[in-house]
Amino acid sequence: MRLLAFFALASIIFSCKSIQEENKSNQTSVFQVYPFSLSQVTLLEGPFKEATKLNAKVLLAYQPDRFLAKFRAAAGLEPRAAHYEGWEAETIAGHSLGHYLSGCALMYQTTGDTAFLHRVNYIVEELALCQKADGDGFIGAFPNGKKVLTEEVAKGDIRSQGFDLNGIWVPYYNLHKTMAGLRDAYRLCDNKKALEVEKHLADWLAGIVEGLNQEQVQNMLHCEHGGINETLVDLYADTGAEKYLHLANIFYHEAVLTPLAQQTDVLPGLHGNTQIPKLIGLARRYELTQNASDQTAASFFWDRVVNHHSYVTGGHGNHEYFGQPDQLRNRLSDETTETCNVYNMLKLSEHLFEWEASAAVADFYERALFNHILSAQNPADGRVIYNLSLEMGGKKDYQDPEGFTCCVGTGMETHSKYGANIFYHNEEDLYLFQFIAAELNWPEKGLRLRQTTAFPEEQATTLRFSCAQPLTLALQIRYPHWLENGKLELSINGEAQEITGTPGSFIRLHREWKDGDEIKLEMPFDLRLEPMPDDADRVAICYGPLVLAADLGPANDPLAHSENYVPVIMTEDRQPANWLKQVEGEVNTFITTGVGDPRDVTLHPLYKTNERRYSVYLDLFTAAKWEAQKKAYAAEVAAKKALEARTYDFFELGEMQPERNHHLQGDKIRVEHFKDKKFRVAERGGWFSFNMKVLPDAPLALVFEYWGGFTGSKTFDILVDDEKIATENISQKADGQFIDITYPIPANLTKGKQQVTIRIQPHVGHRGGPLFSARVVKE
């Protein structure tokens, strides 16, 4: 069956490769290496093949007609099934169809299973019907989206508020997903109708934005717009029509991209995944136009994110936002490292590797792939993770597959294409990019190369050549950065080879290869500490390429929020091999030996840690530092007691009876839990208020408790009996800690009163809170 599927793919492969060959001939100065087609690489047994199988089941469980329901309704056609819920019931409806179309096209190339091809072709036919019924090229599923874009945005009436453009949730981001799905249907499944539908949609989009002036465009681009510039550049590549390159150029967000092209880090405070696709689009534009500033921006951005904003797992961001560079110690929560961000950073990395064949890029790719991407899929059922928690004592929260968040969408794609990034090539060199069990078929060279390995559960890999005729070729094997002690051993046909390379490079083996030649690579893992950039004593423990996680207990552990739940490591020895012992019978698993306080813990690879509480980061303490820590804690307790002694009235938000006692009311408000506490927050356009007792003739102040690490648009006014006493913005106010902020109450507002009403009023486009507790204190 596999052989039949391979021959069935032949024409498709030729179609896809013709695009690659055109790029090769036109852009030889840009590319140093090229990827292979997905259909040329067959995954062998190992964690990535298992992840692919799980994702295939997830994709086949979805019903295309439910994704298409709102597209048909928007086009005036009767839906064939009920639409999905989750985000697909919001104004972002339709984004999941684009991801699904791409995921199925990628999975078809990966597996050859025609069930995926049939779904791709069916969806394209349905979208073509919707486009025909609409009449002017538009296809979309978000309610009133076309009307808002044509009657408001196109005429310069633009109201852009972060993720909202004139009341629609990220409409261009949404269109990007649809266009990307159509692109992949054309390129990977040879569906020519998909290209026609995509062209008509792009032509309709041109009618929306081409009449806007530069100020209006830049105002519009403050709203997250995904990688629509990338799909438009790709459409230019697929059609040769300059108008699509011109359209892509319109989507150039100057406030972010111009400083990056000037090598200025403007990332602090920005929403992470709003930015990465913009740079992927610039990377693609550089490949077709050789615009040097595009390359500079993309490369500089990659370096800043990877080397100054990322955690040990290769992920970045806290509550979806960038913080200050190299300031990560206190940016640990249950909402670190959004999986979409990692998906897109790997896409950007692929572009950079094709330009430079850089081992540093390949090393980062491995770090993020093994420690985040594998960690973000449930090995039992294929559910994926939105934010991979790095909270000390946190756990993994898997998404409802019918919640259709952005990370459910990218999960459809990322677990469908592992074969694309194992090998790269040019005319003279074959690069081993990742140690993943797979077989490469390279018919132009008459070569099959089989990589057999259980990596990372095996600290070795074997490469075996199958070729009818001897082949002269340079094989470039990655020398991983984590082999810092230089212990790599390499043999060819059982004969040891002298290695001249160093960790973080490629080893070039140039020779005539014969059928049956075999290369063995031995890569013994070492234990090491990787500290936070801003705290050498807050460390992650790594073993070779793997990030280890301290196993603290079951995910529902009732002790999870108790004091000292996360142990500290009491030692002055920074060589973890001296205080970690291999657990017998368990691969890549260790236990601390007498250094854990209050208990020793077992450490497993993060990607193997599921349904458990864990900590990737641990604190190291010497006896002297521990004494200082205890003094600091005592001072904190004393300050809290002093605050309580001054308190006249107090209540915790989110608790039913205290809220009733304080007459809490509001509009568009909700309660959530965070770090074992409840909070209230008013959504955009909402508000909330409550009453507090006061003294009629004493100086008083309000004290509000916030979490200082929340990000995003959180500016609001604080009013006492309808008079504003303060404007607050709690976004990124104090990473990693609860904070109390004091607001003096003017005496005239409490004079002669026993009670006042406190109101939280968000600014336009912002949320009010989250607020955990409120108290009135004597000054």
What would your notes on this structure say?
The protein has 779 residues and is an alpha+beta fold. The chain has 20 helices and 35 strands. Strand 17 and strand 18 form a beta hairpin. Helix 5 (95-111) runs parallel beside helix 18 (406-414) and helix 14 runs parallel beside helix 16. The chain is globular, with a radius of gyration of 28 Å. The protein starts with a helix and ends with a strand. Mean pLDDT is 93; it is low at 1-28.
| DSSP strand count | 35
Largest sheet: 10 strands, mixed
Q: What low-confidence regions span 5 or more consecutive residues with pLDDT below 50?
A: 1-28
Question: What is the number of helices?
Answer: 20
Helix content: 25-40%
Summary tags:
35 strands, seven-stranded antiparallel β-sheet, 779 residues, ten-stranded mixed β-sheet, disordered N terminus, 20 helices, single chain, alpha+beta
What order do the helices and strands come in, and which of them pair?
Blueprint: H1 2-8, H2 10-26, E1 34-35, E2 41-43, H3 47-61, H4 64-74, H5 95-111, H6 114-134, H7 145-151, E3 160-161, E4 164-165, E5 168-169, H8 171-189, H9 192-209, H10 214-220, H11 228-239, H12 242-250, H13 254-261, H14 272-289, H15 292-308, H16 339-356, H17 359-373, H18 406-414, E6 423-425, E7 429-432, E8 438-442, E9 447-452, E10 460-467, E11 471-479, E12 489-492, E13 495-496, E14 505-513, E15 518-522, E16 527-532, E17 535-543, E18 546-554, E19 568-570, E20 580-582, E21 590-592, E22 596-597, E23 602-605, E24 612-615, E25 617-621, H19 623-646, E26 647-652, H20 656-661, E27 665-674, E28 677-693, E29 700-707, E30 715-720, E31 723-729, E32 738-745, E33 755-762, E34 768-771, E35 773-778
Parallel strand pairs: 7-11, 19-25
Antiparallel strand pairs: 1-6, 2-8, 3-4, 4-5, 6-7, 8-9, 9-10, 10-15, 11-14, 12-13, 12-15, 16-17, 17-18, 17-25, 18-23, 18-24, 19-22, 20-21, 21-23, 26-35, 27-28, 28-33, 28-34, 29-32, 29-35, 30-31, 30-33
Helix pairs in contact: 4-6, 5-6, 5-8, 5-18, 6-9, 8-9, 8-11, 11-12, 11-14, 13-15, 14-15, 14-16, 16-17
